[in-house]
Design goal:
With 138 residues, the chain is mainly alpha-helical. The chain is 57% helix and 9% strand. It has helices at 11-31, 41-55, 62-68, 74-86, 108-129, and strands at 60-61, 90-94, 102-106. The protein has a three-stranded antiparallel β-sheet. Helix 1 (11-31) packs antiparallel against helix 5 and helix 3 packs across helix 4. The longest helix has 22 residues, at 108-129. Residues 133-138 have low confidence and may be disordered.
Length: 138
């Protein structure tokens, strides 16, 4: 019989962590007004990847943006990107140096939504990691 693995994290902390993760998912859904298309990992990868790249000063080509998504054929990924552009979350911007190249950028609306989501959920998640003070003890 195998000995159970040592519990590295108490269940109380894991429950807090699960609650934070659930709050993260619910907040994402609320940010995108419960729109079922955007409540998927694929849009999460796409939106967070495009915003992160913009914040880091890197431009993403359409192909690079599509590669942010983990599943789907090339056509499916392009369709997702097209929908996000149509809904005003992403912008397609032609390169000034090579007009054949098009970059994908976040719209101001998407940046605002992602920033708000990440700030709210960062604070909630930090609570799950930081020890709570009880009677002066950590």
């Amino acid at each position: 019989m195998t000995e159970p693995a040592e519990k590295m994290v108490p269940e109380e902390r894991l429950i807090q962590w699960m609650e934070a993760l659930e709050a993260y998912a619910r907040d994402w859904d609320k940010v995108f007004e419960g729109h079922p298309h955007y409540f998927t990992q694929e849009y999460w990868y796409l939106f967070v990847g495009v915003v992160t790249s913009a914040w880091e000063g890197r431009s993403l080509t359409i192909n690079a943006a599509c590669q942010m998504m983990k599943t789907g054929s090339a056509r499916t990924r392009e369709d997702r990107l097209k929908k996000a552009v149509q809904d005003g979350y992403l912008l397609k911007v032609r390169s000034e140096s090579d007009r054949r190249t098009t970059y994908v950028m976040p719209s101001e609306m998407l940046e605002s939504k992602i920033r708000g989501h990440l700030e709210r959920t960062y604070l909630r998640t930090a609570e799950a990691f930081l020890p709570h003070q009880k009677n002066g003890q950590a």
